[in-house]
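debug: dumping io for the single-chain case to check the tokenizer round-trip. Nothing else runs in this session.
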Amino acid sequence: MLEGQVIQNHSNMLSAEQIQANWDRYIKVITESLSKERTDILLPFLEKYQDRMMMMPASSKNWHHSAFAGGYTDHVLRVYDCAIKLYNIWGEMGGDLSTYTLEEMKFAALFHDLGKMGQQEGEYYQPNDSQWHIDKLGQIYKFNTDIPAMKVPERSLFILREIGCKVTQNEFITIKIHDGLYDESNKFYFMSGQKETKLRSHLPLLMHQADHMAAQIEFELWNNSLGEVPKQKLSKPKNASKGDKTLRTAKKIDASNNPKLAEATLDVIDSFFKD
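debug: decoded output
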């Protein structure tokens, strides 16, 4: 285990002490990893929004990853820890580590999801006031529709620019495409048809791997804490639209054509339809 590594909690609920310990480590890693020019900008910003950022989740649904108070810092530190290990693996296996600096890698890991804080004037995640969505879909948080809609990586870069924090080209590309091919617009970077347009550095790949690894581990911690995948008895909410009914019908047709498709998987598919 890395020194000061992110605190594990299989119940997916962090104590106040754990949340504070993770935040303290987050600030310590930033202070020790980044140039003074950048920490002089970042540390006052983080202090200003500490109450929000220290308590915010990393996702909206309990089966995604770290959807609980303190989940954001928990996730970011895990991505950071995974990135350090993957950096060593890339080097050991012959990867060209000269195409980026350690500071660039650490900066991208520490701020790849900064956009999840929302705008400076409004948070991104809000506690869900719909018990149906909480009970049936595991949607613990909802999105704040009062702030402009932006993809998380783009909002991360926007905030960094807004506060005057310098971002290198490596950091910009890495943060922008860290979601990999989960975002269709990233195909340009990951599926180049020409030698000249291929990524000049493996840093974006490393960061996507670290983020994906961390998120999967967080899902497994949540799933293992349940003992089994819960079967959700889905009922139509009172405000179900015609579109909802169409999608549910499509899901049933798909299930009939795929008898081996697990019921738990269908529940997950259904949750996408209901978001």
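debug: round-trip ok. The two ends are 37 Å apart (CA to CA).
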